[in-house]
Design goal:
By secondary structure, the protein is an alpha+beta fold. It is built from nine helices and 16 strands.
Length: 331
């Protein structure tokens, strides 16, 4: 099949001017397995280069959409129902007139995985927009044909370097609920993009973002945890979303008797922490070893981060909703 996507297999997607060694760590190389992906648009399976969204779609007109990131482990999607519940809750908060049932969403995810013959090491971005408008404009009353569902599955291992990440504190603040409630997992990511631009310019992996009071919220892409004298601490859900991986880590702490807390965290507490790590579907658990030029702990992957990473890996090996079986091997 002919296509216009033509990134050399050996190329790296550059976004900032940093040293070559940092570039190798920070930027994701193009995976040739993704060259001929099949994308699902409202149930229609098309090659990635033929996939297109209408200029009248709400996601184009105003970022009016909600999304979830899912990860496939050995044919099973980890925390699938929790992700779909968050998607549905966000769509309800945005007053979507129609929201597909979970069974329909799961079936479209399954069809997409089957079309791409995917079984493991896959990240799925599930997007639900308010749909196509009959004329351009912000008003949701211009939407009369129902939502648009996009299922994008890629061969993509966890994106962060497990040896440790470097962060800088962004000047961009996370909104509190009275400005834009972070419990709505929406597609307008301008805040995060602005913070990521600052991180790129500084040669850091990501940006740490504060709330309007000056307390730690999250990074531009993940939740953050500190470890202080054996206690695992994360920010309250004031200016950050309800993270699925975040909740999983807190549940692991409860199950295994690890002291933990949710409270406001200042930058001083970050700088003096024994360990720090971030969590998310894209990167699982990843150690943070440097923030604003301060070495965190020993500057290495700490023992609590290692323990929780192993416990998390055990969960992903044993839990999840099975959607697809291993590919048949013909001898």
């Amino acid at each position: 099949m002919g296509h216009v996507f033509n990134v050399p297999v050996t190329s790296t997607l550059k976004t900032c001017s940093t040293s070559a060694s940092r570039d190798e760590i920070m930027h994701q190389k193009f995976n040739p397995l993704n060259r001929d992906l099949i994308v699902n648009l409202n149930g229609r399976l098309v090659h990635r280069d033929q996939a297109g969204v209408s200029p009248f779609d709400s996601v184009v007109q105003g970022g009016d959409a909600v999304w979830e990131g899912l990860r496939l482990y050995s044919g099973r999607i980890f925390k699938l129902h929790e992700h779909l519940a968050r998607l549905r809750g966000s769509a309800k908060a945005l007053a979507f007139s129609q929201i597909p049932a979970d069974d329909e969403l799961i079936e479209q995810i399954r069809r997409t995985l089957e079309a791409n013959q995917m079984f493991d090491g896959v990240h799925i971005r599930l997007t639900l927009t308010r749909g196509v408008k009959y004329t351009s404009g912000m008003d949701p009353r211009l939407n009369t044909v129902g939502p648009t569902l996009i299922v994008l599955a890629e061969h993509k291992p966890p994106v962060y370097d497990k040896a440790g990440l470097k962060l800088i504190t962004s000047s961009v603040r996370r909104f509190p609920p009275d400005c834009l409630d972070p419990k709505i997992h929406h597609n307008n990511l301008i805040q995060s993009i602005l913070a990521k631009l600052e991180a790129n310019h500084a040669g850091a992996d990501d940006a740490l973002m504060l709330d309007t009071r000056g307390f730690v919220a999250e990074t531009n892409a993940t939740h953050v945890f500190l470890v202080d004298h054996g206690e695992v601490i994360t920010s309250r859900l004031v200016a950050c979303p309800e993270g699925i991986t975040r909740t999983t880590v807190l549940n692991l702490c409860r199950t295994h008797g690890i002291p933990h807390a949710e409270r406001d965290l200042s930058l001083t507490e970050v700088y003096r922490a024994d360990e720090m790590f971030c969590t998310g579907t894209m990167g699982e658990l990843a150690a943070v070893i440097d923030v604003d030029g301060r070495t965190i702990g020993t500057g290495q992957h700490g023992p609590m981060t290692q323990r929780l990473s192993e416990l998390f890996a055990e969960l992903t090996r044993s839990e999840g909703v099975r959607l697809i079986s291993p590919p048949t091997v013909i001898v």
